[in-house]
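Summarise what follows for lecture notes:
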Amino acid sequence: IPGYGDSPSAEMVVTAQGRRTFLDHVLQELGMQRPVLVSPSMSGRFSLPFLLAQGDQLAGFVPIAPVGTKDYTPEQYQQVQTPTLILYGDRDTRLASQALQNLKHLPEHRVAVLPDAGHACYLDKPEDFHRALLGFLRQLK
């Protein structure tokens, strides 16, 4: 993610609009049409603005305890028709519960909770994570 960790800072990603535009450019450059966007943790700063503005370009959305969910209203989430799998580990009691409280307003959502998994549930329980993800992908149109 630009501007995080050891990556160089980028003026473009200072605002939510800039992060949405950045993600849109990445998807265009990769030639992706109707991808499923998997968004763990800090990537929520990019995925959520994109989802709310351009969610119709996604075949699906898989938030994994993303940050930034409180920045949007229930009414904004209710406008999104993108099929969503809200996925998190049951040991992630802080960020996951906050994200669930906000993301549950997405009308086309379902929830998968990975037992005995923390914030990085995909690392803690990779088989369970992949099983949930593949199940979701199979049911998409």
The chain has six helices and four strands.
